[in-house]
Amino acid sequence: MKWFWLGMFSSALISFTAKSDTSTSKIMHCLQDTSVVEHVDIYPQFRGGVKRWNEFLSRNLDIRNAIYAMDSTAYVDYGIKQTAILEFTVCEDGEVCDVEIVNQHNISPEFAKEALRVMKRSPKWSPGLVNGKPVRTRFRQSVTAVLGE
Fold this sequence. Notes:
Blueprint: H1 2-12, H2 24-32, E1 45-46, H3 49-60, H4 64-69, H5 72-78, E2 81-90, E3 96-101, H6 109-121, E4 125-126, E5 128-130, E6 133-135, E7 137-146
């Protein structure tokens, strides 16, 4: 039954999100220019669009640890369906840095950890554009999962 729910989760409950890469060289790159554009002509997106992002999440998001770590109190506190809202910066070259979970207190710590882990594995995004030029853009996406057994 657990595998049935896990299969159902991976195919139906994943929504669009982002990525973070904590390797030192990539973070240093993002921190060189601290100006961030909030309003752009074209917003950043995962290369390949929503379909490719959902495929990436299906292959990489592993909620088993979060499911096994949650007790009945955690289900009452956070619920079975959880959404991690992730805010991050997409650099001019598509690297993602400065990642944070905006709603940390509304999701289980185990799911938060997994959402961040998956974001660290994400390939580059297409950057935001202003007048046809790539710019550092602050962006927000979410990852939703059903953590039921």
